[in-house]
Amino acid sequence: MKQRCVKPRFWVVLVGTLGLAVGCGKAPSPRFDSNLMVMDKYDISFEQQQDIANALAALFGTPDDPYVPKESGLDKDKIKLAAGPTKSDKAGVHTGLYREHCAHCHGISGNGMGPTAAFLKPYPRDYREGWFKFKSTERAEMPTNADLERILRHGIPGTSMPAFEVALVQPEIEALVEYVKYLSLRGMVEIELARQTSEELGEGERLPTTAEFLVEGVLKPQAEKWSSAETKLMPVAAPPADFGSPASIAAGKSLFYDVNKANCLKCHGTTALGDGVLNDYDQWNKDVAEFRTKADATLASLTEQRGKAEEDFATAVEALGADSALSEEERKQQRETLEKDKAATLKKLGEKERMLPTAMAYTLVPRYIEPRNLRMGVYRGGRRPLDVYYRIHSGINGTPMPAIANLVADSELPADLSEEEKAQRRQSLQTQRMWNIVDYVLSLPYEPGGELGADISMLGRERN
Amino acid sequence: MTAPPLDHSCSPWPHRLAVLLCCATFPLLWVGGLVTTYDAGMAVPDWPNTYGYNLFLYPLETWVGGPFDLFVEHGHRLLGAAVGVLAIGFCVTTLATRCPAWWRWAAAGALLLVIVQGLMGGLRVLFDARALAQFHGCFGPLFFGACVALAAVTSTGWRSWPVQEAKGAGGLRRLALFTAVLAYVQIVLGSELRHVRTDAGPRWFQTFVLFHLLVAAALVVHVALLSARVWRGGFRSSKLTRPVTLVAVLLFAQLCLGGATWVTNYGWPDWFKDFFPAASYVVQAKGWMQANLTTAHMALGSLIWGLALLVALRAGRLYQPRATHSVQPTRALGAAA
Predict the structure, then answer these.
(1) What is the pTM (predicted TM-score) of this model?
(2) From A381, which residue of chain B is nearest by alpha-carbon distance?
């Protein structure tokens, strides 16, 4: 008798538990996070933030259901392959590639805040500003498809950015490159919308929602940066005939250590072990550091600022009462304006109080960037002489590593040349000298004292 | 007429099947780990069918010759079905042969566990519920533990070993049990690292890594204490020394695998980057090393848990605390008065 009662209850419990597990197991679809640091930087109110989020949703869709206007220049089919939850079919075609391979580091929104991010050094890239390091285009420009493909295929040695040549086939790599561009463009548009909201909208004015404004005014100029990347390549002249010769290396060496010329020793150190400047941030970490300092200060002074708003209001009201030139009507009107202003200030402070802790939680502890130890012979952007040439020519975007300075003094050019000839001569000398530096940099690991050279005692030397 | 001598022994078959069940479940766990490693959970969109075919009728050449993800996922299903069949076989043998009645209940319990596990795997696919995948992943080792327990208690030795009263037996039992529980908790923590939601944000993962490391340290301490207790504390029965030594060796291997898993997934920690080969190391996504070391780390975790459970069970079976206060009236007696 008793057993009969237990059994159905048991099955109910079992099925109920499984149902519950499915219910809990089916997590809500991931969403794009708003760029709170930028919202704070431009003092965007909650209402305006919602406007921006709406505009972004209209332009780019959601992580599960992405959308790209044709003006973005992006390929919708490729994006669809990379977006959404991970699946594969009988033919082995994978969708949801980004979530399978990248999101745990770079984050669903491409903000470099994936779950694993806090442990990785350097932190995974935040794509949203459109700053990329290793490319063949000029410093401030976007990378080409080929640049991004190379990074995906070969990874970045010495960092946790993996090589995907084994894991992915060509169409998948292309899809992911397109998706990186999609996330980056979305981030750039978000920043631009915030900037325009702050700088170009009047008091109380809402963000226009017309296609003309969003697509023509905001999206297109940003998309242009990506679609024109192929035309912004760094000029490269072939290496000089003596490339690789001891003379070329020696010439490179003297430039490298010359504070008035290349001044590489400033950061990479007199030893080239990367021990020059050790307390500089890259651009991403600098932004975070500044944001954190400012947010801390704002949060600490909230009570004070609220008190001040009340105080200012009281003083103004008092002054109003004392002003005998005003009629009763005018006085009332002005008082109302004062009240409105006070309420607006308090509302803004309240919003900061709510937003800043979340925004802070969405940043990682800022860390200094270390100039590379050039005696290791490890080149994250690629080890071909051409790659090193790119790095030296344009520096490394987003990091302190600067584009090459002028290496040719005016006095080195014959005075009897025309301006045009002078410019030409200067250009060819500059290029030649950059190749000399490349030569020297590539020889550093093999120099006595280099990690790959004869002097073994230098291996694993401490930095200080 | 004299009756034939009474035979109290049980059939050896339940035990053989239980051992077989362990031997089949461990590879099943491994392949299940591969499914997660290759993110192949959704390589077959339907369930219980495979692309419309009955599980067992899916054409061999499209399975073996198909995409790797499908190969792994369908293989996992087939192996799972095989384990299910073995569990049924185990049930049947306990019913058909002479053995204690509670074995039948235990066998039915094990069968129920496989069914639940299979259902969870299926629902995970039907609803693409990733958290359920994690639950399924944690339940697998639990079933493996159940198989190990069944194999342990159905052995001939289990019925014939004498119980020894020994000083400190209570401590030994508690220590062994706690070590086994820790080993399982470690599996659950590890599963959170493998199944972390991509939109979880860094703090969550950070916290779980921390706990995974803390429990690893706790396990090292407990396994060391347990080994010391077994080897030097008067419990030096080969039934304990063998599995406990194996646990210690495997734990050491597991620590190495854990480190290797980290490096092959995320690269070397920063402190190594002034040295070769860390400075030039490139993580190979889904490369041979990454995929297999990570999966091995997961599988070895289950093996350690299974063996630790075996140690705990045997410790409980072999040694009893010495009854020191046997002359005092018990509470039950007092209550009866």
Answers:
(1) 0.91
(2) B280
